[in-house]
Amino acid sequence: MPDAYTIYFHDDLDGTTSSAAFLRFFRERGKTVKDFVPVNYGPTFKSDWPDKKFSRPFVVVDFAYHPRAEWWFDHHQNPFVREEWKTGFKNDEKHFWDNKAPSCCGQVYGYLSKKFDFKFPPHFKELADEVDIMDGGLYKSIEDSLSRETPVRRIALSLECPDGANADYKRFLIQELSEKPAGKVAESGEVRRRFKSAKAELDRTCVHYKKNLEKRGRVAYIDNSLAGIETMSFANYDVYPDALYNVNIDKFYHGRVAGYHLSIGSNIMKREEVKVNLGDLVEKYNGGGHKYVAGIDLGTREEALRVAEYFVNYLNKNG
Ligand SMILES: [Mn+2]
């Protein structure tokens, strides 16, 4: 199949659902997709990405720009690894950057519907709207942000359990979501089993936050790296509803190599008070993100603590 596409997608809910939208679109236009490959930012992302060996032709969704991508859609703040890629870039029919889009899934859904007059089945609208809320942090309240009751949120949480991280599970979800409403997909044993285990972990995380979260000025701060707890941004504001920002550290593994992730976010209920662009602020540490939420990967815990300290102070002074 020389013309079958490979879709490279950001390894999260948004990338997975963006791929499902593309699969639907391609399939109905008689094109085949031979594989779906999750990609992520990591300590060596910026040096690896330009020379990465892609299976061609390929599509990139919800992730950094690459000039060889036949189709590319992204909504991140700084998707250009090289300066000349940024200056040479113009949106065209198959390449579209929209850093105002709450999610890439919503972006792809809206774009393909409008530009190609493509008729998605009705369940895609529900999917795109929910991913917009989740990826764009457009929740109605902190309570709403913690709720995992809708089918799309159940699927999102299922990705958080250890065996939700594997690529085959994402491939399964992409196929399923391209065909069926999220409500049907969420009922499958594959999703339910992972949801149950991730929900137990989420409950443990909320207890950990209640016990250990510190309020430092306007910033909610926690180092989760020793407790083996993953950052849960909204838990910050459940504990301290009047905090404006959060700075959280957690530990992750890239294969066998440990790394430390710094999550910097803002309170979704106080967005009009946010004066800085977090995505821009983290650039000098090779981080990435949007105006309201950003992340940085660091090699050691000492480094993570030092950079966290810098941002706690910076945000109290300037944010
Ligand atoms: Mn996204």
Automatic annotation (TrEMBL):
This protein's source sits in the domain of life called Bacteria
What InterPro entries does UniProt report for this protein, alphabetically?
A: DHH_sf (IPR038763)
Its recorded name reads: DHHA1 domain-containing protein
